Amino acid sequence: MAYKKYKAGLLVRLAALFLCLTALAFAIPLKNTFYIVLAILGILIISSHLYHYMARRFAQMDDFFESVKYRDFSRWFNDRTGPEDMRQLYKGFNEVNRTIKQINKEKEAQHLYLQKILEMVDTAIIAYEISTGNVLWINEAFMELLNVPAFKKMTFLENRKPELYHAIFGTSPIQSGTMDIEVENERTKVLVADSIFILGEETFKLIALQNVDATVNETESEAWKKLLSVMTHEIMNSIAPISSLAETLQDQVGRTKENPSTHPLDIEDLDAGIESIKKRSEGLMMFAKTYRSLNKVTHLNLGTVMVGHMFDNIGNLIQPSLEKKKVALIFALDNKDLQIKIDTYLIEQVLINLILNAVEACEGKDNPKITVAAKRNNKEKTILKVTDNGSGIPREIMDQIFVPFFTTKKSGSGIGLSLSKQIMLLHKGRIHINSEEGKGTAVSLIF
């Protein structure tokens, strides 16, 4: 719209200039001084008007582009007065300024949002330009981990902590993984990761450092708290009745010693009490032995085995007892030549434990069935799965089933799944349980 009005005004002035030039061309042969002077005067006036008409608009455009060059979008152009085409032009300039200011505002908000997120994480992060060493971004976690103030160039870190600088930033590409760094004469294990990205014509490197020691210490602390809580509970359950019963028996013996005729010693009660103390003591000893078995598995005797042969061994061992309980045990193998590198003794122990758990879960069910399957998925991972149609695991205890000594059974140590998980971790694998109460459970061993 503004361009059309500008073109119309320009054409009118050019037409007027053309008419004046035509009049001058006719007046000169006639030697009419009045018309010649009038035509020349008209040409000068129209030319001056045409020059100012165009110059004014180009000057405004030049001012606008100058402000864009210096990123000054605060200027406001008066779009309420003046010629229509100028008002339209000013409106366009103001709209561009408003749009760019809105974009800048959104970018600032995103930058602030990202800044707050990076400040909240406990991972040390730094981004810098590779060619100049100018620091684009650094968070508080980085400064705390390396014990340095905020800095703008990587040369500061190189001069301040040369050994640390060359250990982390001196190699290219960085070997991602864990490394030991020394800060204030203290060695810290960190997990290092880096990435390179390009902004415009500049290349930046982003490096992230995670304090592994702090994470491991926190995890170990939580594990110890949980383990000590369970052990304290189990030990107190055994010691409290032993102490109470011993105190009762001691009181009875004391009264008999003081006055044998009035308080004769009941040998049967004494024998029953001692028998109870013996059983509880044996239970406590069994608990200690069971705990020791958790620490016993520390290394593997790896070998490549045929999964089918391992299934045959387990079936021969456990099938007779399941037939008496009328529980169907099915082995499913997609590939009879499937092989796996494992500690056969330990994995057989895990599978037998899972099958026995499934047998107990199937008690009271019609047509109880347990399936032990093996397959290799599209990610080249071998999966052994034990599935049953038993009672399933209640949702409220799913997060506790791997806790040592936790059990819902009337008899049992509560270390079966804990030991199974430890064995799978030694194999650099994992154990996954999917259960639906009332329908059954599937336990997968993923290698």
Describe this structure in words.
This protein is of the alpha+beta class. It is built from 11 helices and 12 strands. The protein has helices at residues 2-30, 33-69, 84-120, 140-146, 154-160, 162-168, 212-258, 267-296, 307-324, 344-361, 416-426; strands spanning 124-129, 135-138, 177-183, 186-199, 202-211, 303-306, 328-333, 339-342, 369-376, 382-388, 430-436, 440-446. The longest helix has 47 residues, at 212-258. The model has no long low-confidence stretch (mean pLDDT 77). Keywords: ATP-binding, Kinase, Membrane, Nucleotide-binding, Transferase, Transmembrane, Transmembrane helix, Two-component regulatory system.
Strand order in the sheet with the most strands = 2-1-5-4-3
- SS-based class: alpha+beta
* Contiguous uncertain segments of 5+ residues: none
- Mean pLDDT metric: 77
| Share in helix | 55-70%
| Rg, nearest Å | 44 Å
The portion of residues forming beta strands comes to 15-25%
**How many structurally independent domains?**
4
CATH topology of the largest domain: Heat Shock Protein 90
Number of helices: 11
Architecture of the largest domain, CATH level 2?
Answer: 2-Layer Sandwich
The name of the CATH superfamily of the largest domain reads: Histidine kinase-like ATPase, C-terminal domain
The major beta sheet can be summarized as: 5 strands, antiparallel
Total number of strands: 12
Q: Alpha-carbon distance between the termini?
A: 70 Å
| SSE sequence, one letter per element | HHHEEHHHEEEHHEHEEHEEHEE
Query: Which geometry do the CA atoms define?
Result: elongated
What kind of oligomer do you see?
Answer: single chain
What is the CATH class of the largest domain? Alpha Beta
